Each structure stands twice: as C-alpha cells, then as structure tokens.
Amino acid sequence: MKTFRQRLLGIARRARGFTLIEIMVAVAIMGLTFAIGIPSFVRAFKREGMRKAEKDLLDACREARAAAIMQDKPVDLVFHPLERSFEVPGVFPTAELPDDVTIDIMGVNFIQLERAEIARIHFFPNGTSDEFTIVLHSSGGEFRKYSLDTVTALTVAETIK
Description:
Blueprint: H1 4-14, H2 20-45, H3 50-71, E1 75-80, E2 85-88, E3 92-96, E4 101-108, E5 111-112, E6 119-123, E7 132-138, E8 143-148, E9 155-160
Antiparallel strand pairs: 1-2, 1-6, 2-3, 4-5, 4-7, 7-8, 8-9
C-alpha cells in the first residue's frame, strides 16, 4: 500500500500542466469570442446618427445651464440651423448634426426658426431658460423632440411616433 506522500507525488507527476493542444483550443475559443464581441463594443462606444445628435444637444444644454448658474450671468446656446450646428461660446465647442439627421421644427419663445440664420436660446443665472423646442428626424425614420422646461431649464426628450 502506498503512503500518502507517494500518492501525492504520483498525482503531482501526472498533473504537470496543459498540453499544447489544450492551450491551442483555449486560445482559439478566446479568439472567436473576441472576434464576435468586438464589433458590438465598437458600435456601443461609437456614437452616430440620432444618438450622437441627442448626446451633443443634451450636453450643450446642460453645459449652458451650468455655466449660467456658476458665472451668475446669462449664457446662450447658439444654433445655426442652416449650417446644422450649435455651440455654447466659451463653454461647449461647436457640434454638427450628423448627415442623416435633419431639423424638422425649431422654435424659440414660440417663434419658428428652423430656416433662420441663427437662433439663440438664453439660459439664466436663476436656472431658467427661454422656451425651446426642436424636432430632429433621422434618415431611418426616427423622430425625436427635445424641449426645455422653462422653469428648470432641464431638457426633456421624447420619441414621436
């Protein structure tokens, strides 16, 4: 009968490591997993179309509101509807709407401005803002409406069906 030490040494001699085939199979499985998963990760991080437009617009409104409150002076979100761009001078850099997104409706203080040269939305130090509504339309048929709550200057986003 083998002693405990002899049995332990026998197990240790048999289980020295992985064979080359086992390692190659593991690497192949990991490679397939990465190859299948990477495009999904890239799409998740790459913003395009309506997602990019929404993120940029919400960021610009948030930055304009914060700057007005922190600097204790009015700050403007400046839209250039014909150029399809907007900015908050000194606070948020110029952002352009993606090629597949168009402005269907834009109103500031109930005045239609989607065909105007420039549109200014004022954010005030007390946390309020002008009335602002914009409807964006993607080439994929998606309609999104963004408006500012004039009392809080917070952006409200909704999908139009």
